[in-house]
Amino acid sequence: MSRFSEILSHFIFDKQIRIPDMAVYCNMNRSTLYKVINGKRSASSLAQVKTMAQYLHMTPDETAKLLEAYQITRLGEKAYYRMKSVDSFLRGFSVVSKNTFNWNGVMPFNQNGPVIENLNSQYAIIQVVEKILKHEKNKEKGKVYLNIQPDTAPYVFDILLNTERLESQTKLEIEHILYLHGDGRLNDRNEDLNITYLQSVLPLFLHNHYIDYRPYYYYEKIPDSDIHAAFFGFVLFTEDYLLVMDETGSKGLMIKDAETIQICIEKFEEKKRFTRPMVEMADNWQILDPDIACREYEIYYRVDPFLLPHMSEQIMKKYILDSMDNQSGFLQRYRKYKQNYFHRQTEQILYCSLNGIRRVLDKDAQFFSSILKPLSQEDRLHIMRRFYEYCRTNETADLRILKENTNTDFFRGGGYYLYDPNHLFFVYDIGNEHMVVEIKNESLQESFQYYFLHLTEDAYYAKEEGLDLLYQELQKHTK
C-alpha cells in the first residue's frame, strides 16, 4: 500500500465509514474507491482528495497530512520535498537579516592575547566572527575567506548581512567555498539542502553595495584529499586571524599564527581551482539577449505579469528615464528582443498572480521603475490589453494565474526567468534597483525547473479560466 492509501484507510476504519456512501459523495465508482483505499489505484486529483477529506470530516491538520501523502505518492518522496523546498523558498525569501548587531559594542582583538585560543561556546565564536569582520571592514581592502556550510553556522551569514551597519566606505571582499549535493539530498527536516544553502547565499550576493561576496561550489569531493586536510574543519579566516569550528558551529579555535594562516590561504586557492561559481551577476538586461531567450521553452514566474515585450517602442521612448545611460543602445537591444520574442515558436509558461494584475492596473502603480518613469493608467491598461490578446491568440503562451500569492513584498517587479534547464535568472527589481542574477548550479536549476513544470492545476487557474479572470479585471478598469 502507498502512504496515501494507508492514511486514507486508517481514517475510514477509525471513523467507521461506509464505502458505498462515501463513493456516492465523492462521485466515484465503488470499485474505484476500493482500489484507491487498497493502494491499487491513485486518486485522480487533489480536488478529489479534498472531497474525501470533507466527507471524512477531517481537521485542517488531518487534511494537510492526507494531501501531503497524496503528493508524495504521486511525485515520489524526494521529488515532493524538493518541490516543497522551492515553494518555501519562493514564499519566504528575504534579503533582510532577522537580527541586528550593535557593532559599536564589538571590541578589537587583544594583540597580546594567546596565539591559539579555545572557544567553548557558540557565543564565544560569534564574538570572534564579529571582531574579525569589523577588523577587515576597517581596512582599505579587507578580505575574508569562508570554507563553511550554511547549516553549520547560520549565525555567520546573519552577521555578514549586518555588515552594512558598519560605518565604512570600503567594500569587504568575501570568497566562499561550499559543497553542494548532486543527488537532491534532504536534511533532517526534509528540506532540499541545496535550496537552503541558496537561501543563505543569495541575500549576501544581492547586498553588493557594501560586500563583494563570491560563492563557489563543488560536489562533495575534491580530488586532492590533502587540500581538505589543511582546513581542520569549517573555517573563516583573513590574513590575520583564523577561526576553526566543529561541524556543530558551537566549539572552535581562534589562531593568530601567520605561518598556519598562510598555509590555509594557499590551500584555499588550490581548492578554488576545482570549484565553479554558484551564482553570478548578469548583465542587467541579459534576459533581452536573443541568443538566450530562443530555446525549447521559457518560464516566467512573477507576481506581476511579464509585460516588457508588450510595450510599444513609442511608450518605451515616452517613459524611459532621462538618467539612463546609453538610451539608444538599450532601445536598439529592446527592438531586436521584441522581434525575436514575437516570431519564435518557443513554448512559454507565464505565471503571475491576480493581485499582481490588479497592482499593475491600480491608479498609482509603477513597474520597471529602474528604467521607466511612472506610466499613466491609460498606458498600463493598453499594455495589459496587448498581453491579454497575446495570451488569448497564441497557442504557445500558457497563462497560469496563481491561486495563492508568492512573496509579494519581495517579488514585486522581479521574478524568475527560466530558459530551458540551463539558464535560470533571478531578477531583483524594487525601487530604482535592478539586478539580474544567474543561478549557475545545475542541481538548483533542475529543482526550479521541476517545480515550475510540475505545479498542479490546483495551484493555478487553467489558461481559459485565467483569461476570463484577466478579462474581468480589464473590464473593471475600463469603465
Describe it for me?
This protein is an alpha+beta fold. The protein folds into three domains: 3-75, 434 Repressor (Amino-terminal Domain); 103-277, 2-Layer Sandwich (Endonuclease, Chain A), CATH 3.30.870; 281-478, Endonuclease, Chain A, CATH 3.30.870. The protein is built from 18 helices and 16 strands. The protein has helices at residues 3-14, 19-25, 30-37, 46-55, 60-75, 77-92, 122-137, 154-161, 193-206, 225-229, 258-272, 313-319, 327-343, 354-361, 377-393, 408-411, 442-454, 463-478; strands at residues 116-119, 143-147, 172-179, 211-218, 234-237, 242-245, 252-255, 276-277, 279-282, 297-302, 347-353, 397-402, 415-419, 423-430, 433-439, 460-461. An eight-stranded mixed sheet has the order 1-7-6-5-2-3-4-8, with helices on both faces. Strands 9-15-14-13-10-11-12-16 form an eight-stranded mixed sheet, with helices on both faces. Strand 6 (242-245) and strand 7 form a beta hairpin. Helix 6 crosses helix 17, helix 14 packs parallel to helix 18 (463-478) and helix 15 (377-393) runs antiparallel to helix 18 (463-478). The chain is globular, with a radius of gyration of 26 Å. It starts with a helix and ends with a helix. The relative contact order is 0.10.
Jot down its keywords.
single chain; 16 strands; 44% helix; 18 helices; alpha+beta; 434 Repressor (Amino-terminal Domain); 3 domains; 18% strand; Endonuclease, Chain A; 479 residues; eight-stranded mixed β-sheet; globular
